[in-house]
Each structure stands twice: as structure tokens, then as C-alpha cells.
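Proteins fold reproducibly. Look at a concrete instance:
___
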Amino acid sequence: MTRQIDSSGASVTEQLRRHRDEAATLVPTPWPDLTQLAELNFRHKAGIIAQRGTREAKVGRDVAVHAANAGLPVVLFTGYPPSTQPRTLVVKETPDPTDSHVNAAAKIHIEGRTPRLIVIERYERLTREPHQPYGEPMHDPVDDVSEEESWGDRLMWTVRNIRVDIPVLLTTVVDEVPDLAWPLGRWLHIDHPANVMTDVCKPTIVLARSSPESVEARLEVDPHEYRSGERSTLAWKPLPRPS
């Protein structure tokens, strides 16, 4: 009987055990409080919203680099590559990635392993994959007068078409100082990327700096609905600058 092995030398049984262990383990972040709140494991799509220009705004890159430094294979979609790039980090600088780009990224091999995490910075850059019509378009009087699909709807469906078994972290920014006293819909337009994120990411976390070493977080959406709207303080020390 032939013993099947992958490129890292692991047997099928070893691969299954490793995948099971990985699915139950949270992906580490530079801040343990965030690790617990974001719950990056298995199929979770988690979203983080921060104010533009703050140190929290680059949370996607920070998480990607940290996880890669811990030895996890990570794919980062960004327009601004990190200055430090560990061996297990693959950076995709595609300006307008599609759902197919992301789905394909989950299958690449990094140091002999498939990714454990995908990070998409400024996820509103995502573009829907063009679909060919099945045949000649049919004219329906009802459809002809219906409202055109909004940009927010297109973004939502693009994210939903990302179908991978590993966790995906998406980030976006707001220009306003985040008002954690109110739901996003009270202070942002319905089609703002941050609002759209709540439809596709569980959890969605809004961040606002509260002190030099802490951040206030609001769970805008949470898998446990009773926690949505809950606020907490996260220990969040600035990361050392790369030498």
C-alpha cells in the first residue's frame, strides 16, 4: 500500500490531524485581547474598522506579519507592503483583487503548506469577478424598472463569494473619529464599506484609541448576537518599529 504524503513529507493521517488542530486554534495577533475578540479560526470572516491615519489603521499588516513571524503561512492583499516580510508571508499587491483571486490564494503553497490566514487590507478594493450571461437577456417589465444594484451590494456579494476554509481578516477605515456609543448606521452612510462589512463579517469590530497603550472596541456584529454592541478595552501597546 502506498503511503500518501504532501510536499512537507506529512502522511494523509498527519495532514488531517494537523488541519483539525489548526481549525480549533486561534490565529495569534500582536495583542492577545484582539486575538480573543477576533476569533480568527477555521471559516471565520472577521472585520476590523479603524480611523484613517491612526496606528490601528494598519492592523491588517500588523496581524499578517505577526502571524507569519509565528510560523504560520499567511497571504496579505495590500497596496502598501510591510517593510519586514517573513518567509511565510506572501504579499499580493493586486490593485483590485476579485473573489477568484482570494479563493486561489487559499490554495497556494508557502514553505510547503497552504495558508492559515488571508488578510485583505482596505477590502473595498475588491472587485466582483465578471460573469458571462447564460443566454440572450430577457426583458422583464418589473426588472426593467427595478433599482440598479448599489456599490455596497456588489461589494457584499463579492465578499460572500470568497469561499475558503481558513480565516479571512478584512480591514477598512473611516475618516470620522469612531463613535462607539452608536451603531455604525447612525453615523455612516448605508453604503459605506464599514457598514457593508457588518453584513459579511462575524465579528465586525470598531476600534478607537483610548490611551497610549489601550484601544476601545465595539462589537458591531458578533456571532453571539447578545454581545453585539458590547464595548471593551483592549491592551494595545504600539509595536516596535523594524530596525
